[in-house]
Amino acid sequence: MDSPGYDPASVTGQVASGATLICFTTGRGSCFGSKPAPTVKLSTTTSLYERMSDDIDLDCGGILTGTDSVEAAGERIADLLCAVGSGEPTASERLGYGDEEFTPWQVGAVM
């Protein structure tokens, strides 16, 4: 998907293209949810997950530190996506995020 890096606009484009489940990586802790399609958030660092565990679905920071493998994390991600696809609410859904995060993007620089 060729879209801007601005989270709401990027996911809006993915949903408009037919996505029904979003897997969203965050390194800064974007507070984001999408009501049209559940949004699973993956933290890139364990410290981020510890700070925002109520708003992030899965900690993938072990890959960076070497305490986890890409394969093991991938299995946990796949299991989580299957659970969410079967109706388990995401962290953003539990927090009620997603009502306002549907944003068509502007052409040009976004600040």
Word description of this protein:
The chain is α/β, with parallel strands linked by helices. It has one domain (7-95). 38% of the residues lie in helices and 11% in strands. It is built from five helices and three strands, in the order H-E-E-H-E-H-H-H. The longest helix has 16 residues, at 70-85. It starts with 6 loop residues before the first helix and ends in a 16-residue tail after the last helix. The mean pLDDT is 87.
Task: Please describe the structure with a list of short key phrases separated by commas or semicolons.
single chain; 111 residues; alpha/beta; three-stranded parallel β-sheet; globular
Q: Which spans have pLDDT < 50 for at least 5 consecutive residues?
A: none
Q: How many helices?
A: 5
Rg: 14 Å
The sequence of SSEs as H and E is HEEHEHHH
Instruction: Assign the structural class, choosing from mainly alpha, mainly beta, alpha/beta, alpha+beta, or little secondary structure.
Output: alpha/beta
DSSP strand content: 5-15%
The biggest sheet, with number of strands, parallel, antiparallel or mixed sense and barrel status, is: 3 strands, parallel
Strand adjacency order, main sheet: 1-2-3
The tally of beta strands, per DSSP, is 3
Number of domains: 1
Q: What would the average pLDDT be, to the nearest integer? A: 87
| Separation of the first and last Cα atoms | 20 Å
* Shape descriptor: globular
